């Protein structure tokens, strides 16, 4: 069972999420919280696998709570569920350690799929949030002779990854097998010294390793 803690300051939202998630055989909602501070108190006792986290809440917002959770309980993953897709919310949430970022207009089945993805150790980011990551720019210029350790094919895979595509979608786009994509992604993580897809996407954007949409 995937143990989930729901954190949102709106009772109606918590009730709706609870009602739907209870229908999933592999997901168990073990508690609720109405703000980040309360969430941290519940986590100490309940030890969920995944925290479904709102961003704008009283007392302690979702970004502060996410940072605290990842510092104190690195094995617990956070999936942001919010109405905000602007860079002022997306980037701090990812930098705080969130494994996923989804908007509240997400279809219920897609939300469940996101929870399962995170439980498998994957990242899941809404396309609108991914678009904000693509706009990241270095605060200062890169050294003039930046060394790119990736092969051309690895760069292709990385560019597709930054668009929020799954391994299957990347394979279809590049006309290779999913196994080949997995191998390339493993090599990318190793060469760039990153641990997950979100970190790889951030690195790609910062160092200009992405391609324009549509390529």
TrEMBL record:
Q: Does the keyword Transcription regulation apply?
A: yes
Which positions fall inside the HTH luxR-type domain? 143-208
Response regulatory domain residues are 3-119
> Which CDD domains does the record cross-reference, listed alphabetically?
LuxR_C_like, REC_NarL-like
Is Phosphoprotein found in the keyword set? yes
Domain of life here? Bacteria
User: In the record, which positions carry 4-aspartylphosphate?
Assistant: 54
Keywords, comma-separated and alphabetical: DNA-binding, Phosphoprotein, Transcription, Transcription regulation
What single Pfam family name could you report for this chain, choosing any that match? GerE
Tell me what this protein is called. Response regulator
């Amino acid at each position: 069972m995937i143990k989930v803690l729901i954190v949102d300051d709106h009772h109606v939202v918590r009730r709706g999420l609870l009602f739907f998630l209870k229908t999933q055989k592999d997901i168990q909602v073990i508690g609720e919280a109405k703000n980040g501070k309360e969430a941290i108190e519940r986590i100490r006792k309940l030890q969920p696998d995944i925290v479904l986290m709102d961003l704008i809440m009283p007392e302690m917002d979702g970004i502060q709570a996410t940072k605290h959770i990842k510092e104190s309980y690195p094995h617990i993953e956070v999936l942001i569920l919010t109405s905000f897709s602007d860079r002022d919310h997306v980037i701090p949430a990812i930098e705080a350690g969130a494994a996923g970022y989804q908007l509240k207009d997400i279809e219920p089945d897609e939300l469940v799929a996101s929870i399962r993805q995170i439980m498998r150790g994957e990242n899941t980011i809404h396309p609108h949030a991914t678009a904000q990551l693509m706009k990241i720019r270095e605060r200062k210029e890169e050294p003039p002779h930046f060394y790119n350790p990736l092969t051309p094919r690895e760069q292709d895979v990385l560019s597709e990854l930054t668009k929020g595509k799954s391994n299957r979608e990347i394979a279809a786009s590049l006309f290779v097998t999913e196994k080949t994509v997995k191998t390339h992604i493993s090599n990318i993580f190793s060469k760039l010294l990153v641990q997950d897809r979100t970190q790889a996407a951030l690195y790609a954007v910062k160092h200009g390793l992405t391609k324009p949409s549509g390529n």
